[in-house]
Amino acid sequence: MSDETRIIPVILSGGSGTRLWPMSTPERPKQFLPLTDERTMFQLTVGRTGDASRYAPPVIVASERHADLIEEQLAEISVHPAALILEPCARNTAPAIALAALGGGRAPLLVMPSDHVIGDVDAFHYAIAQALPLLDDGWLVTFGIEPDGPETGYGYIKAGGPLNGTTRCVAQFVEKPDRERAEAMLAAGGHFWNGGIFLFRADMFLKALEVHAPAILEAAKASIETATRKGHRILPDAQAFAASPADSIDYAVMEKAERVAVIPVAMGWSDVGSWDAIYALGAKDQDANCQKGDVRMIDGQGNLIQSDGLRISVSGVHDLIIVASGNEVMILPRGSSQDVKKFSS
């Protein structure tokens, strides 16, 4: 591909990751931790688009407080970003993507959260190839995750008629359902988890913003026009950016635009949204224990035990989550990891 047609990865890294406390903190949220691999989830996300023949250097949109941390982690994997856009305040995904799209011209943008796991990267790239022919006709493409159960923690996408190959029109975006509705959607078929990954031309996204969320576009433009630039770091004007409505790309654009497509894909995806998800993803020993760090265990089954320093010694415990980080130790029954929010708030 020429430089004009290579895909620009846009990596969104503004999340706070409070559901993985005590390891994930505002200073070092989950995307910057090696929770599922020797590399961090941020580094894994960047690495998925490392083929320079297909992908341009990434544009990263993140919190200003994490700028140095991002630079360190990029240096570890020898990646030089096209731009590091540092948000002065959080305004959700639509304004963040608008910052990245300005100046992108007609280039395809692949928008990815930095804190997700994709087990089958080849399937992901195949889905991207399926989507590319639609972009010049103004389609905004999202990737629908093949559901493996009636999950109530995700939004869903209801697919409509076929476009090309496996690509289908989006009939409806569905809010996070209760269990009864989730089971009904699974039984009906044609419903997919909304994984928050998108592909579209930069100019087409900006046109959609102009129609459906002009205040977001205006604030993004104003903040970039008066931004401070230091090498590849871009610091949008704080006052101008703060004037933007805080809205997700789903609400601001995808639910309103006319040409929205979904590509169903089974790619071993997880948003790693809880310690129970870490347990599900992790390697287990013969007793179904998932351990990382300095851990000693006697007669234990089905436990997730992780430490980034302290030695954890346990005997005769089953189906627990035990996490030690710094001076904090958290112990919960497996299956109740959503209770972390009681401690991290």
Describe the structure.
The chain has 345 residues and is α/β, with parallel strands linked by helices. The protein folds into two domains: 8-270, Spore Coat Polysaccharide Biosynthesis Protein SpsA, Chain A; 278-344, no CATH class. It contains eleven helices and 19 strands. It has helices spanning 41-47, 67-76, 93-101, 121-131, 179-188, 202-212, 214-225, 238-242, 249-254, 275-281, 341-344, and strands spanning 8-13, 59-63, 83-87, 108-113, 117-118, 140-145, 156-162, 168-174, 191-201, 228-230, 233-235, 260-265, 269-270, 290-292, 295-298, 304-307, 312-315, 320-325, 328-333. It has a five-stranded mixed barrel. Strand 10 (228-230) and strand 11 (233-235) form a beta hairpin. Helix 3 crosses helix 7. The longest helix has 12 residues, at 214-225. The radius of gyration is 21 Å and the shape is globular. It starts with 7 loop residues before the first strand and ends with a helix. The model has no long low-confidence stretch (mean pLDDT 94).
Summarize this entry quickly.
With 345 residues, the protein is α/β, with parallel strands linked by helices. The chain has two domains: 8-270, Spore Coat Polysaccharide Biosynthesis Protein SpsA, Chain A (Alpha-Beta Complex), CATH 3.90.550.10; 278-344, no CATH class. The chain is built from eleven helices and 19 strands.
